[in-house]
Amino acid sequence: CCCLCQLRLVLLSAIMAGGGGSDHDISDEELMRRAGIRQPQEVCGISSAIVVDNIPEVGKERIAKLETVVLKIMSRFGTIVGKPYFPVDDNGVTRGYVFLEYQNEKEARAAVETANGYRLDKSHIFTVNLLTDFQKYSELPEEFTPVEPAEYEEEENLRAWLQNSDAHDQYAVLYKQGEACSIQLNTPNEPTVVHEKSYWTEKYIRWSPQGTYIASLHQQGIILWGGENFSRKRRLQHYNVQMIDFSPCERFIITFNGAPDHDTDPQSIIIWDVRTGERLRAFNGQQNKEWPIFKWNFDGSLFARMSENVISVYETPTCTLLGKESIVVKGVRHFSWSPTDNIIAYWTPEESQVPARVALLSLPSRVEIRSMNLFSVADCKIVWHGQGDYLAVKVDRFTNNRKKATVANFEVFRIREKQIPVEKIELKDAVQGFAWEPHGNKFAIIHEPQASHGVSISFYEMGSDKLKLIKTLEKKPISHIFWSPQGQFVVLAGLKMSNGVFEFYDTSDMTLMNVTEHLMATDVEWDPTGRYLVTQVSWWMQKVDTGYIVWSLQGRLLQRHSVDRFCQLLWRPRPKTLLAGDEVKRIKRDRKEYSKIFEVKDRMTHSKASKALVERRRRLMTDFNDYRRRVESELAEMDSHRRELRGEVENSVIEYDEEVLEFLVKVDKLVL
Q1: Which pTM does this prediction carry?
Q2: Are 31 and 20 in contact (CB under 8 A)?
Q3: Where are the beta strands (DSSP E) in 292-405?
C-alpha cells in the first residue's frame, strides 16, 4: 500500500510539473492513463496451475529422479514456474500426483490437451487437469438437470469436388515462397480459383491419397483441411513435424519430427487416427535413414518397418505386432509391399559363402511363396507393378573380383502365374531409371550404353508367354520417365536441364506425338485422369522463371503461368472408381458414342471461354481509355498554372505515338 501511495505521488508531481492541473480531480484510472501504464487486471492466481495424476509412487530417495522425468515431459508445452510439488504421506512416499505451474493459462491448457492420456509406461497413464477444474466440479448443483440434445447438424460433404458437372480436376498451388496457397479448378484457358489463403502452411502441403484432405505443416504440428470451404477438420500436435505419410485408406497418418531416440518416451514418430485425432502410438526413428520409415500395405490394415535383421509388421488400429513378434530376416537391406496383396518382397546381401537372396513373403501366414539366389551382387532395387501383377528387381552386379565396376540386369517375377516364373533382362549398361506402366503390361528403362554419348530408353512388354523388347530410343536428352496414370501414354523428360525437353509418346504403336520444351523444368505432375500434364519450375530449386505449364496428353500447350516465387503444384487425387470392371470395359467400348456428346460440349465451352476472354480484354481497354481521358482532363486544368511556372507563352504540344501490337493467341496442330 505504501508503494502504491509513493507511486501516485511521483506520477502527480510529474503531471503537475508539466502543467497537468490540480491533483484533487485526478482519479487513479486517469492518472495511470496519463502515465501510459496499463491498469492491473484481477486474475485467478491458480488458472495456470495443473494437476498430473497417476504418476509413480516413490520414496524420498527417488523423488529427484521422478521430478526430472516429469519436468522433461511437461516442459514441452511451456515454461514451468518454480519446482513441482509432490504431496507425500507419513512415510515420505509420493501420493501419485503432482502440482505444476506454467507462466500463463494458455500453456497450462496446452499441457492438459496434449499430455492427458500420456503413457509413461504400462502401469502409468497420465490424467491431467487444470487446478481450477476441481473448484468448478465441486460447485456442481445437487440436483441433476438433463441436457437438452443439440439439433442435428449435417456434416459437409468431404467429396463435393467430385460432383463437378464438367469433371474438372482441382490442384493446389503454393507460391510467394510458401506464403500463399490457392486451390484452383482446371478450367479451359484459365484456371478458376476455388479457395485462397495466406500463410496456410509453414513448410509444404500434401493431399491425402484419395483427395479428401489437404495437410499443412506447422511448427506445432499439422492441420487437416477439407470440405467445400476447406475448413479445419483435425489438428494433430507434433512439435517441429518434418514429414507425414497417410495410409492408403486415409484412416491413419504417420508424422515424423526427427526427435532423438528415447527408450521410455519416444517422440520421433507418431501414429494418429485421422477421424478422431487420437494418438495411437509413438516410436523412435533416428536409426532409420530413409523415408517413409514405416510402409503401409495396400489397404492400411498393416504397416511395417525394417530394423537390423528384422522386419516388424504392426496391425491397425491397435498398433501391436502382428503375431506378437517381428519377422527375423538376417541382413535384410530393403523391403516393399505389394500394392494389391499382403505380400512383402525383400532382399538380403551376400555374406561369406551365402549368396544374396530375393524372397516373397505372404502375410499373416509368414509363408515364403518364392525366393531366388543372386551372385556377385552390389545392390538391388525392388519395384512393384501398379496392379501387383509383376515385380521387377534391378540387380547391380560386380564385373570382376575387384568389385569396382558394375553392370545391371533385371529379374522380373510374374506374380499371378503358377509357381511365379522369373524372366531375365541383361543390359550390361548403367541404369538411370525404371518405370512400370500403371494400367498395362509395359515398362521402360533408361540406360546408358558404354560406347554412346547419350542415354537410351528401352520399352518392354510382358507378353502372355514371353517378355519382349518393343523399341529402343537412342541418344535422347532424357533423365526421367512419367507414365500417364491410366497407362498407354508416356512422357520422357529432361528435368533440371538447360534445354528442358519433353517427348510425348503413345506406346500402343510407339508414335511420337510431340516434342516440347520447358527450360530448367524441375517437376512433372500428371492429373489423376491422365488427360493433362503440368511441368513446373520450382523456386525451391530454381530462382528465376518460376511457374508452370499445362499440356494436353498429346503435348499441346494449353496454359502458361508465370507465378511469383512458385514452389509447388499438386493435383488433387481421386478415389478409386465404384464401377465394376465390366462396366468400365463397356464405357471404354462405347467411347466413340460418348465422345460425340463431349465434343459438342467442348466446342460450346470453348466458345463461352473465348467470349469471356474477349469481354475481359474489352473491359481492360475501356478502363485504360477512361484513365487516359481523366489524365488528359487534369493536364488541361493545370495548363495555365504550368505556363505561369515555366514562363511559356503557348501550351506545349503533346504528341502521341499509337502502336498496334499483335500477339499469338492460339496454335492448333493437326497430327496426320
Answers
A1: 0.73
A2: no
A3: 295-296, 302-307, 310-315, 327-328, 334-337, 343-348, 356-362, 367-374, 377-384, 390-398
